[in-house]
Design a protein that fits this description.
Elements: H1 2-15, E1 20-25, E2 28-32, H2 33-43, E3 48-52, E4 55-63, H3 67-76, E5 81-89, E6 92-101, E7 117-123, E8 133-141, E9 146-154, H4 156-166, E10 170-173, H5 175-178, H6 181-190, E11 194-195, H7 205-216, H8 220-223, H9 230-246, E12 258-259, E13 267-268, H10 270-275, H11 289-293, H12 299-310, H13 316-331, H14 333-343, H15 349-357, H16 363-384, H17 387-390, H18 393-399, H19 403-416, H20 437-464, E14 469-474, E15 478-484, E16 496-500, E17 504-508, H21 510-543, H22 545-570, E18 577-578, E19 583-588, E20 602-606, E21 612-616, H23 623-637, E22 647-650, E23 655-659, H24 663-667, H25 672-686, E24 691-696, H26 704-722, E25 725-729, H27 738-741, E26 745-755, E27 758-767, H28 774-781, H29 786-801, H30 804-808, H31 814-817, H32 828-833, H33 859-870, H34 878-898
Parallel strand pairs: 1-5, 7-10, 9-12, 10-11, 13-23, 18-22, 21-25, 21-26, 23-24, 24-25
Antiparallel strand pairs: 1-2, 2-4, 3-4, 5-6, 7-8, 8-9, 14-15, 15-17, 16-17, 19-20, 19-22, 26-27
Helix pairs in contact: 7-9, 12-22, 13-22, 14-16, 14-22, 15-16, 15-21, 15-22, 16-19, 19-21, 20-21, 28-29, 33-34
Bound molecules: adenosine-5'-diphosphate (ADP).
Organism: Halococcus saccharolyticus DSM 5350
Domain DNA mismatch repair proteins mutS family: 691-707
Function: This protein is involved in the repair of mismatches in DNA. It is possible that it carries out the mismatch recognition step. This protein has a weak ATPase activity.
């Protein structure tokens, strides 16, 4: 037998390409061999040994009833687990793999995230490369029945962006994608999805089309404009076939094919989602935008809000509708709270619907469906009682599901289901009395038989005058009469002893046996009939999958809009006005930072004529906060939310692109500069004149001249070719000169106040480039000896008086700074006395002089200064400037060497 089992396991394992196999053996699911060791380790299961053909096999098992949580744990770690069930056949049994549970098809999930399964197909085009290909994508969430398909013309970056919108738990690469190492690598690195291979046949155009038609009806593709989209159809067919073959039985919950809204959507790539900390914090303990604004009361509402944030839209009509809803809810405080309280009683019906379709819902699940359906009319009542909400989009949202059908289903469930059913579905107690005549009859008979047994003890006590007599039931003895040892002599003839205990004996009688059989018969027939009625009911609910999805989505949307209203009211947010061009924010704040500090609001104006802002200011002054708040206000406006500002006019953008510091990528082992340039390349390719671009310190990852050149060139390109609305924070002060060359570039700076030796960050954003004198303050903070700091102040004022510095531009980066480097100049003596502080440590560029301590310049340094003074920065190209600086540095180095 043992040999057989291991052999059978190994044979079944051959059949499947799943990572692990769980095989039913009686009351347990067992893993053998390597699988057992692996599962034992991962899930902390006890590993025993099974011997087979003289060798010992590791074995680990879980009880039948506890498989689900173990499966869930394995699948959430990214493994695919095949499950083989055992069947009785002619006295023996057989085992067969019935389903494969995978990350993208796991039904049992409680978290508030959607669980998408994705397929990606590439049409035509060579391997990899930057040339544009045509991709088809499909996304299915078996837990809610959502299904989206789309086609993308572009590069792998666009595919990733679309993937990020859905954050799939599992990805099926289609035939051509499997050999595209570049795309596969990026999917592996930059999504959390498990990559799974599915049969190529499923992706074949004709097969896939037939699968899609069969699932959604032959009109579906045309009705969502995907009739010609072979890629999307192939991806959709692949996904459907995969769901079918994994055998989770949820295909029927997918009732509607939806185009994913990429045309009306906003491009929000992976990097940007992370940079803006929309739903995941960058570091530990960081607070995300979602955490901050989520006041939803249902898990479906929270899930929808997350989706909105990751998938902002451009469609004005929809944005206006949502904002109207938020506005109405913001005004109707009482009705809003009533609404939210009612919503709190709703369950996740979209997920319950999928459970029902797959046949895994129990009676408690159906009660939850009933209770959620009951929420709908109560919400309608709450809204009808409120003048603000009566004619608002909230009323429209609630009018979407077929209310009569919902009420009918609720009524049917209410009539049928018992009030407090057990978790199992086989033991009866599921169905209410009065629902089915046959069942009522069985219940009557059952109860009469039970009554007879209940009264038996009293009757027997009286009849035979035995005081210590009781009745009971257990598994081995069935029903019995028990008499205490002191009275066993009184026991009448007709009692048959069946057991002798320490203090008592157990008996039965013919009549009791008869009644016992009756009770067992009733029990069995009753639970069979209840199960049958329950299954009919569950079928009925499963058939209403589309209705339940409608209800679920309507409730989720109400919850989401109410949540946005709650936040708007409690944080004094304002409704953004959607305009045709530009971005004008009055008193804008950062939605997350404003919760943590006393926030100083700032204005921002981008127009056709002033579309590119160079943002300067000392470190920590608030540059990146200002830029991020701009992106977040735009994004919030484009999910239909109010925004943290006194007023805001927003022209919806087609994409938000960011490039900021790359700490996390460093950890992945790519060079910062390479990552930075790859992202910059992506932005320059993808952004349009309707996009918003945020660049924080681009060009920092390389040697300074390269950095400035790239930043300069990128700015020109963004300004002249892409024409995107751009905010560009830089510590290259040279770049503030761009405003003189390019018409639509303007300088702003985050102000700081220098009084005496103190710098106070004012956090206000003002016109014009920054005053660069903070460098001295930073040198002071960094521990540069006081004589040097003091002397540098003198030098600075001298130089300012000569206007030399204004002409030269900043020395705030290290190489330009080297011209006046503390470490290489005549200050060397005193600087070294402080431990040889290097220019690098004086991060925010410091201006000092190549002077001797007594203040007299050596002749070479003087000639360099003259040259600096003579240079007209406005008429010299950046490249020329750089080469001159290089020359000056060389001359100063020579001076030093002479000493
Ligand atoms: P920078 O990008 O210039 O180095 P940050 O934007 O990171 O500076 O800002 C540094 C800190 O200053 C932030 O963590 C925040 O706490 C604070 N801060 C920024 N802007 C404001 C503001 N407008 N009002 C209040 N505090 C702010």
């Amino acid at each position: 037998m043992a040999e057989g089992i291991v052999g059978e396991f190994l044979a079944l394992k051959e059949e499947t390409d799943a990572d692990l196999l769980a095989m039913q053996c009686g009351d347990f699911y067992e893993f053998f061999g390597d699988d057992a060791e692996f599962v034992g380790e991962e899930l902390d299961l006890k590993i025993s040994e099974k011997s087979s053909h003289g060798s010992a096999y590791p074995m680990a098992g879980v009880p039948l009833t506890e498989l689900t949580p173990y499966l869930k744990a394995l699948v959430e770690r990214g493994y695919r687990v095949a499950v083989a069930d055992q069947y009785e056949v002619d006295g023996g049994h057989e085992r067969a793999i019935e389903r494969v549970v995978t990350p993208g098809t796991l039904l049992e999930t409680t978290d508030s995230e959607a669980r998408y399964l994705a397929a990606i197909v590439r049409e035509g085009g060579g391997n990899g490369g930057e040339d544009e290909s045509r991709y088809g994508l499909a996304f299915a969430d078996v837990t809610t029945g959502r299904f989206h398909a789309t086609e993308i013309v572009g590069g792998s970056e666009d595919v990733l962006t679309e993937c990020y919108r859905f954050a799939p738990a599992e990805i099926l690469p289609g035939p051509a994608v499997r050999t595209d190492d570049d795309l596969l690598g990026r999917l592996r690195d930059r999504t959390d999805g498990t990559l799974s291979l599915h049969t190529t046949d499923a992706f074949a155009p004709d097969t896939a089309r037939a699968t899609v038609d069969e699932q959604f009806g032959s009109e579906a593709l045309a009705s969502v404009g995907l009739d010609e989209a072979t890629g999307a159809i192939r991806a959709a067919g692949g996904v459907l076939d995969y769901v079918d073959t994994t055998g989770v039985g949820t295909l029927a919950s997918m009732t509607r094919l939806q185009p994913s809204q990429s045309k009306e959507g906003v491009a929000l790539d992976a990097t940007t989602q992370r940079n803006l900390e929309l739903v995941e914090p960058m570091g530990d303990g960081g607070r995300t935008l979602l955490d901050t604004i989520d006041h939803t009361v249902t898990s479906a509402g929270g899930r929808l809000l997350r989706e909105w944030l990751c998938r902002p839209i451009r469609a004005r009509e929809e944005l206006t509708r949502r904002a109207d809803g938020v506005e109405a809810l913001a005004a109707a405080a009482l009705a809003r709270e009533e609404l939210r309280e009612e919503l709190g009683a709703a369950y996740d019906v979209e997920r319950l619907s999928s459970k029902t379709v797959s046949g895994s819902a129990d009676a408690r699940d159906l009660l939850r469906v009933r209770d959620t359906l009951a929420v709908l009319p109560r919400l309608v009542d709450a809204i009808e009682g409120s003048p603000d909400l009566q004619n608002s989009p909230i009323a429209d949202v609630l009018a979407r599901p077929d209310r009569a059908a919902a009420e009918e289903l609720r009524g049917a469930l209410d009539e049928a289901l018992a009030e407090d059913p057990p978790g199992g579905v086989r033991e009866g107690d599921l169905i209410r009395r009065g629902y089915d005549d046959d069942l009522d009859e069985l219940i009557d008979g059952h109860e009469a038989a039970l009554d007879w047994i209940d009264g038996l003890a009293d009757r027997e006590k009286r009849r035979h005058s035995i005081t210590h007599l009781s009745t009971g039931r257990n598994k081995t003895d069935g029903y019995y009469i028990q008499v205490g040892n002191s009275e066993t002599d009184e026991v009448p003839e007709e009692y048959d002893q069946i057991k002798s205990l320490k203090n008592a004996n157990r008996y039965t009688t013919d009549e009791l046996d008869e009644r016992e059989r009756e009770v067992f018969r009733f029990e069995e027939r009753r639970s069979d009939l209840e199960y049958e009625l329950f299954c009919e009911l569950r079928e009925r609910v499963a058939d209403a999958a589309e209705l339940l999805q409608d209800v679920g989505r309507a409730l989720a949307e109400c919850d989401c809009l109410a949540s946005l209203a709650v936040h708007a009211v409690s944080h004094d947010w304002t409704r953004p006005e959607l305009v045709d061009s530009g971005l004008d924010i009055d008193g804008g704040r950062h939605p997350v930072v404003e919760q943590e500090v006393e926030f100083v609001p700032n204005d921002l104006a981008l127009t056709e004529d002033r579309a590119f802002l160079v943002v300067t200011g000392p470190n920590m002054s608030g540059k990146s906060t200002y830029m991020r708040q701009t992106a977040l206000i735009t994004l919030l406006a484009q999910i239909g939310s109010f925004v943290p500002a006194r007023s805001a006019q927003v022209a919806p953008v087609d994409g938000i692109y960011t490039r900021v510091g790359a700490l996390d990528e460093l950890a992945q082992g790519r060079s910062t500069f390479m990552v930075e340039m790859a992202e910059l390349a992506n932005i320059l390719h993808s952004a349009t004149d309707e996009s918003l671009v945020i660049l924080d310190e681009v060009g920092r990852g390389t040697a300074t001249y390269d950095g400035i050149s790239i930043a300069w060139a990128a700015t020109e390109y963004l300004h002249n070719e892409v024409r995107a609305k751009t905010l560009f924070a830089t510590h290259y002060h040279e770049l503030t000169g761009l405003a003189e060359h390019l018409d639509r570039v303007a300088n702003v700076h985050v102000a700081a106040d220098e009084r005496g030796d103190e710098v106070t960050f004012l956090r206000t954003v003002e016109e014009g480039p920054t005053d660069r004198s903070y460098g001295i303050h930073v040198a002071d903070l960094a521990g540069v000896p006081e004589p040097v700091v003091g002397r540098s102040r003198d030098v600075l004022s001298k130089l300012r008086a000569e206007k030399a510095i204004e002409a030269r531009g900043s020395s705030s980066d290290e190489s330009v700074q080297a011209v006046f480097d503390l470490d290489s100049g005549s200050f060397r003596g005193s600087a070294s006395a402080d431990g040889g502080r290097t220019a690098d440590e004086l991060s925010e560029g410091e201006t000092t002089e190549n002077e001797t301590v007594d203040g007299s310049l050596d002749p070479d340094a003087e000639s360099v200064l003259d040259a600096v003074q003579e240079t007209n920065i406005g008429e010299t190209s950046p490249i020329e400037l750089m080469s001159r600086v290089e020359e000056w540095q060389r001359r100063l180095d020579d001076t030093e060497d002479d000493e």
